[in-house]
Structures are given as C-alpha cells and as structure tokens.
Amino acid sequence: MMQGYEEFTESQIKVLEHFVTNTNSNIFALRNLPEVIKGALFSRYSRSTLGLRSLLLKEFILSEETAFAAIAGKGSEVDAAEGQITAIQKAQNFYDRILDGYGDDSIGELGGAHLAVENVSMLAAKMIEDSRIGGSPLEKSTRYIYFDQKINGNYLFYHEPVLMTSAYRDLFLSTCNHLFETYSKLVPPLTAIIEQGFPKDPTISKGAYTAALRAKVLDCLRGLLPAGAMTNMGVFGNGRFYESLLQKMNSHNLAEMQEIGKKGVQELSKVIPSFIRRADSTNKHFAALSAFNDAMQGEIKQLAEIHLPKIDKMSGAGVRLVYSDPDAVAKVAGALLFSAGHGGLAELQQYARTLPEEEMFRLLDAASASRDNRRHKSPRALEHAQFTFEILADFGVYRDLQRHRMLTQERQLLTCNYGYYLPTEIVGTEMEKDYHEAMELAKRAYDEIAAELPEEAQYVVPMAYNVRWYFHINLRALQWLCELRSSPQGHPTYRWIAQELARQASEAVPAFERFFKFVDYDGYELGRLGAEIRMEEKKQQRSLT
Fold first, then answer.
1. Which is deepest, 219, 272, 292, 510, by most CB within 10 Å?
2. Which of 116, 71, 137, 132 is nearest to 274 (CA)?
3. Of 280-284, 389-393, 418-422, which gets the smallest average pLDDT?
4. Is residue 297 very low, low, confident or very high in pLDDT (cuts 50, 70, 90)?
5. C-alpha angle 432/319/424, rounded to 5°?
6. Domain 114-308+421-460 belongs to what topology?
7. For range 166-193, the mean pLDDT
8. Which residues pair with 320 in a beta bridge?
9. Other residues' Cβ atoms within 10 Å of the Cβ of residue 440
10. What are the φ and ψ backbone dihedral angles of 411, each rounded to 5 degrees?
11. Rounded Cα–Cα distance for residues 37 and 17 (Å)
12. 99-125 burial, b if ≥16 CB within 10 A, otherwise e?
C-alpha cells in the first residue's frame, strides 16, 4: 500500500496503527510511545531520507538494540511498567549515541515529561517557575484552596533543615504556626463581613457566589501565609527545560532546592534519561557548570557589598518605569512596513522617522484598530519597543505576575524590610490588630534569623511583605500582560500593577496608548463573580447535553 513515497505491507500497517494516528495522511501524530523513543526518533528523522513511519519501523521497532518491544510493548499496563525502566536502561547507550551524535541542545526539546512536585514550599515553587522557557508549571491556588489544613496536628510548611538544627528552630516553628493560626482565625469573620457587604443576588447561582466569595476572602488573607507554606505543582516540560532546571536546583544554596533537584533527576531518569543526564550531580558537565556559578556569584556578591551601600533605594511600594526607548515608535512603524514589502529593516525604520505624525498614527492604527478583544494578538513588530519597570509589591502578587514567560525578570531575596500589604477589607475591623501582630511577629523573627542566615530566613517571610523585582519587556508582551492581568477576576493588587504598567508606558510613549485598548481600569468588589457565573452556566449547559 502506498503512503506517498512510502510503501507498507498490511502487517506493517497493523503495527504502525498502534503508534501513529494515521497511516495514510502526510500529517499524523505519535501515540503510545515513551518520550525517550519519541525524542530519539525525531532526532534521527532530521538526518534521514526515510519518512517517520518507515524510520520507526526500520530503526526502532525492528531493531534489537533499541529494546523497543520492552519499552513500548503492548502487553498489560502492569507488565509494561515493570519492564520499561529496565528496558530503557538496557537501551540507554543506543539513545545516548543518537542524541550525542547530533550535538545540538535543541534535540532535548523533542521529548518531554509530566512531573508532579508535591509538598514543597512556595519559595521552591517560584524557583521552579523561574525556568520559564520550555516548561509549563501549574501551582496549587491560594484563592480556591484553604491553606489552614493540618496533617497529624501540624500546619503544612517546610521545615528547613538548617533552621531546624539551629538556635532559631523554636523561633521559626512558633512564628510559622502563629501565621497559620491567624490565617485560620480570620477566615470566618472576614467571610461574614464580605458576605454582609455584598449579599447574594437572587438571580446568581449559589455555586458562583460561594466561589467568588471564597476567592475574595482568600485573596485578602493569603498574605499571612509564610513563604515556607507547602504547595503542590504539576509541571510539563521538554528535556532541555528539565536539564536546565535540575542543574539550577542541584547547585542551589538551599537544601530544599537541592533535594528537589536530586529527586527530579532520579524520577525523570526513569522516563527521559537521555535528556537530563547532564543535570546529575555526578556528571562532568554539571560539575563544570556548578563551579562557574559558584565563582560568578561569589564575585558578584563581593562587589555588591562594596557598591550597594552607595546606592539610593526605591522607597514605597509601586511601579517605576526605569527605561523606554525614545526611538520606539519609529522602530515599531518600520517593522510593521517590513512584513508587507521588500525593503531593508534599517532603511524602513529610518524612513519611519521622517513620516509626519498623522501618517505614523495611521500606520499604528492599522495594527490596532481592528482588534476586537485581548486574544487578538498584535503583530510582532511591537516587540521592537522595549520597556524596563521596577516593581515593589507583596510576594503574593509577585507569585501571580512572575508566571509571564516572554520577558526578562529578576527578583531580590525575600525580606521584611519594605513593609507589607494590608487588605482594605480588614482596615478598621477587629481583625486588623491580629493581622498587624502577625506581621510584626514575623518581622522580628526574620530580622533575628537573617542576621546569620539570610537565605534560610526567607521561609518565615509572610506573603504580604513586599519584594523588589524588575521586568524588561517588549510592547507586545506588555500588552498581553496588562490586558490579561487587569481583567475583573484578577487580584486587586496585581490589577492595579497591570493598570499602572499600561498607564506609565502610555505616558512615556503616547502613541502606544492605542495598543492597550482592552486594559480594564475599573474597580471591582467581588471580581471573580462574573467568571464564576460563566463557569456555572457552562456546567449547566453540559448537564443538559
């Protein structure tokens, strides 16, 4: 039977049908294949005259060296699971030889894995999410899940081993416990106050109202949770992402990060071993990378101790535009023209600098006027405009905004040095005193621990305390961030930050205000309510079909 230029027998087609979605079309997907086989198959595919299905048959299915039958066998799931690890190890030299033979790190992007990361601190979750490219993390939400559960009578926070064997052990434990106790104590009264202030509309379903109410309460109180609070994550990533992530975790100063790195290598070696072997602490590549990082960070730290005391510090929470390109409009305009013609980019951007303002605006309007909603992506020409913002806001908000991948960002260590966020909903109530007392207790504990152990002291810092970070971002990514994060269902603080980013960018470059047309500047009380109503309606529609 002919498949384009490929010809398969009926028996071969029967075999292939288990591993590909279509044996006739030139477009098809792979299935029922472990990542190690898919990655090696695509690697080999790039330098073969064979079609992928022919290559799969000839060099994988029919090759004894690949241990294909044992790795991708069609026996029972139990049998397959038991034999797969052994088979992968047996065939390891084959897969490593293919991947090494191509000498391109991008080969590591051809296979991936799902990794569950449970009972790690929120601090560790942020370290994992720092590795943004090639990975897709999803973290347990603080707005849908109550964090006051106990297991065996204990609140769930990471018992940092250095602190637990230090003179600060009791201080650390008592402070974290007090933060959780205050969080748990304030949930019922705050729920009652918000419910009284925003009673349920009879036309709104109970489910939607309850979910929006819970989100509002937990958004207000999440600032009491210490950075050591336990969370769960699901991560999907390609091999290159995991290699970089695990190298970083394994060479980190904190014991928790090292433990995650070690266990990550151990577990991913069972499914994508060829892609993450350089992240193993015994690998020569890891040793060289670790030595480089140690030397670099040591030098920078020494220089920082000399120079930082001479620098004035940003005071007060907020957003500050640090940089915007004065030539950004012409760069964007020239890039818009580039895709529609044959002129050189430099010449087009120089030409744009000579355009009258009216003509320039017509060109920018052409790229923005027809957008009907925020999901209509603007052209890549907007990426030629760059902005740098410095932000000082609470760690809870940072956790939300940090997840944006298409930008350069960096944060400083968590501290209790820059004040904390106080939810307006508890101002003037009896709860305000409890909130302030918990924050001040945490600051005293942090100050004492940080004097000797500044990195470990981060675990006791409540999420309400401000952290400093920066975004270096292009206009296209900024547009997406601001329009998404200003939407009604967002947390009020990060909504304000998104609004402020758009406002400051538009003030710096007024011609770009047209690109922020779906930034929502309105204020909302039960911001999640609209989204919850839509979710309830979808549930009801599904139940009727």
1. 272
2. 71
3. 280-284
4. confident
5. 20
6. Gyrase A; domain 2 (3.30.1360)
7. 97
8. 390
9. 12
10. -125, 165
11. 16
12. beeeeeeebbbbbbbebebeebbbbbb
Alpha-carbon torsion, ordered 309, 312, 315, 319, to 10 deg = -120
Which H/E stretch holds residue 473? strand 466-474
Q: Are 302 and 64 in contact (CB under 8 A)?
A: no
66 Cβ neighbours under 8 A, 6+ residues apart? 37, 59, 60, 91, 94, 95
Q: Could you tell me whether strands 2-3 and 112-121 are parallel, antiparallel, or unpaired per DSSP bridges? A: unpaired
193 neighbors 456 (Cβ within 8 angstroms):
no
- In this prediction, residue 319 carries a pLDDT of 94
Extended beta strands in 192-258, E state = 230-238
Q: Using CA atoms, how far apart are residues 301 and 303, in angstroms rounded to an integer?
A: 5
Contact 363, 353 (CB under 8 A): no
Please give the pLDDT value at position 77: 46
- 336 in the Ramachandran plot: left (φ > 0), alpha (ψ -120 to 50) or beta? alpha
Above 90 in pLDDT, residue 482? Answer: yes
What pLDDT digit, counting tens, does each position of 141-159 carry? 888 889 999 999 999 999 9
Residues 6 or more apart whose CB falls under 8 angstroms from that of 80 comprise 73, 74
Structure tokens at 463: 């999420």
* Strand ranges, E, within 197-315: 230-238
Q: Does CATH number 3.80.10.10 belong to domain 318-325+371-414+466-530?
A: no
Rounded to an integer, what distance in angstroms lies between the CA atom of residue 145 and that of residue 148?
9
Which of residues 336 and 212 earns the better pLDDT score? 336
- Write the CB contacts of 28 (distance below 8 Å, at least 6 apart in sequence): 20, 21, 22, 53
d(CA 233, CA 194): 30
Spell out the domain ranges in the chain. Answer: 2-110, 114-308+421-460, 318-325+371-414+466-530
Question: Does the pTM of the predicted model rise above 0.70?
Answer: yes
SS3 assignment, position 420: strand
Q: What is the 3-state secondary structure (H, E, C) of 48-86?
A: CCCCHHHHHHHHHHCCHHHCHHHHHCCCCHHHHHHHHHH
Q: What is the 3-state secondary structure of 211-227?
A: HHHHHHHHHHHHHHCEC
pLDDT at residue 103 greater than cutoff 60: no
Take residue 152 and report the two structure tokens written for it.
Answer: 């065996």
- Which run of H or E residues covers position 466? strand 466-474
> Which among 503, 440, 511, 395 has a CA at the least distance from the CA of 123?
395
Domains 114-308+421-460 and 318-325+371-414+466-530 share a fold: yes
The single residue listed with the structure tokens 């590549």 is 285
